[in-house]
Specification:
The complex is a heterodimer. Chain A is built from 17 helices and 22 strands. A six-stranded mixed β-sheet of chain A has the order 6-7-8-3-9-10, sandwiched between helices. Chain A has a six-stranded mixed β-sheet with strand order 16-19-20-13-21-22, with helices on both faces. Chain A has a four-stranded antiparallel β-sheet with strand order 2-1-4-5, covered by helices on one side. Chain A is of the alpha/beta class. The two termini of chain A are 48 Å apart. Chain B is an all-alpha fold. Chain B has a domain at 56-248. Chain B is 76% helix and 2% strand. Chain B is built from 15 helices and four strands. Classes of the chains: A alpha/beta, B mainly alpha. At the A-B interface, helix 10, strand 18 and helix 13 of A face helix 10 and helix 11 of B.
Chain lengths: 502, 322
Amino acid sequence: MNEAQPILSIKDISKHFGGVTALDGVSFGVDEGECHALVGENGAGKTTLINILSGDILPDAGHIEIKGTPYHRLDPRTSISLGINVIHQELALIGPLSIMENIFVGDLKGEHKGFVKSQKRLKADAKGLLDMLGCDFEPADLVERLSTSKKQIVEIAKALSTNPKILIMDEPTSSLTNAETEKLFGIIKSLKARGISIIFVSHRLNEVMKISDRVTVLRDGRYIGTVKTGATSIDAIVRMMVGRTMELYQKRESREGDKPVVLEVEGLTREPYFRNVSFKARSGEIAAFSGLVGAGRTELAESIFGYAPPDQGTIKIQGISHKISSPKGAMNLGIGLLTEDRKINGVIGTMVVRENASIAVLPKLARLGFVRRGEENRRVNEFIRLLGIKTPSIENPILNLSGGNQQKVMIARWLATAVKVLIVDEPTQGVDVGAKAEIHKLLRELAEQGVAVLVISSDLPEVLSISDRVLIMKSGELAGELSSRDATEERIMMMATVGWCQ
Amino acid sequence: METTKSGFFANFGDYLRKSGWGVYAAFASECLILSLLSPYFLTAKNLFNVMKAITFTGVTSVGMTMLIISGGLDLSVGSMIGLGGMVPAALMTRLGVHPALAVFVGLLIGAFSGFTISMIVTHLKINSFIVTLGMLSILRGFTYLISKGSNIFVRSKAILFLGQGYLGSVPFPVIVMLFFVVIGAVFLRYTVLGRQIYAVGGNERAARLAGVQVNKVRLFVFITTSILASFAGIISSGFLGSAEMTAGTGLELDVIAAVIIGGASLNGGKGTAVGSLIGAAIMGVLRNGFILLGLRYEAQIISIGVVIILAVVMDSLRSAKK
């Protein structure tokens, strides 16, 4: 297979955005019928490369070759006609339309001029594709009713309808359960058997090791190398990604001993999301909240933070019971919430880095209602330094920063408020390996300074490495608690899925 | 890397980012072209006339700028101008109320209208476009009602000075307009509440989760917009010497156009008070040009519409480039 010409060759592709080099002379090849993983830290250039392949943006230099034939300028239609299909992390389906309409949305022309394909035909064709993927969905069902993993399969079927040669999957497993991931891998294997190549872009290196044939690593926009998956290890790949060996997951030495309880929650209930949740959080401690997607962790956090006050139960801060009815109220008590999904809940896209960092402490930076710009600049610059945020200036529009750096700005936002209790929800989601380790270090330092840190995370290795205790939620209830000593991935998973463990 | 921005020119750079250099360039070229085409354009008398003509739009646009930045809209400001002029005039003429009290009541009505709109938008969660569309008719209806079918003369010296007076050779209403624009600009740029207005417009959810009291911010911008519109109506009644039933009709479109031309986005999060003033000036100078050059009135209206569309297109092209 390696002697034959690669189905897709990327030749010397470069792209700059203003002063930032996103890609710098990247070249590599993807073979027919292989699963080729593309890995790299955020900011390494993966997303830019995907956008160039899909025809959404034009490269400044370089071209691609499909089986030896060069193409210099791609647009989305040409890209699809060449057999390149992208399944983005944020699925591009139309909710109010049916499965079959979504699959054929690019090709609805029927036999008669001006008319759309008949329902019967749409249904039959859709069923054919779904059967190929081993799924028995009802083609007339509306897409908005489907779970994320089912939506993903619809996206794959949509891609299949265009006779793809290359399928690019961007972080396909980030919202899937283990079982659903296995199913996806099965589908990938069957696609490979039909000669379709998969470019698998992911941060999850253990999955990359499982499903890919070869791995290409990008770093800072440059091509670092391509290795056969069978001949390498996660360590070696990480080394290529960050340029240095990293000890990703050291188990945290548990700090036992009685530290003061800062937050005490009793009988907290908010139907239908969670009920009867009680726990204590101590100063200087990192408590992780594990559980499956939908277990109610984020909703619990939102209630403690006053964004969605609970129906029942008490919240005590340093022994005193409080009614928290707004985020501002929570902040006044020293509680902070670093939300999940910063794009929707955290980042204010129309503002610059400085404004995003200072928004939560503006009143404290002001005198008589006027913001003291000198003080604001000083503080923000301090955090830029402290957190290692990569930006040419604090006046840079925040959307120019990479995902990991945007997340660091969000962290700066909360650190600036001098919290006593900081809840972080999926703090390293969509963040590269290097920044992940830095964020973990930050959380540990925060705990050291006496903050009670609550980490909601679906990343089990992360949970194990940074927490003193793990609280597991299942279907809205607190299923149990494991100390750092007793916690293992298997035990956590057991509690999260069935509610108990050995 | 640290940059400490300070000083006027660095701040001006911020302005350009927030409202785009296109506005200033367009305005400068417009004035340049007109000064070449007509010898009367650059005379003090003409320039002051242009500024007087845009006073009502200018004053109202300060509030509307804040509102649009926050993500809202108010279609009723034109009607509020009418009501704001009519109520004090009626109080003074028919009930002999003292001008100061009459003006106060006029502004209070503006505040009440803004309060009502804000409550409906915030708590009943109805789009501000629809709510204020309804208010447009309601307020105009009240204006007709109070007027009892005829315009009411304004005899108060203070109000007449407000609309027709001069400080030196500068018309007083122009000074008032500039006063409000400066206050608005300083407010938006330098105060906590001003920054929070931008935050709410940029990403309301994120702002709320960062502790911003979104409902209070909303209330503030709606009330400010209506009060300023009401005040513009009072100035108008002084300017004309009478409170007209039809005062302000259609002006809401001019005000919104000024704010958008000035660099604001209907999605929120962007815009400046000075930009909106330049936006109003661009339209004012255009109208003035048509008059000076003796061109047809119909062509004037068409070209205003073209300018608005052009401004929005250029703005979206500029932000799409990123």
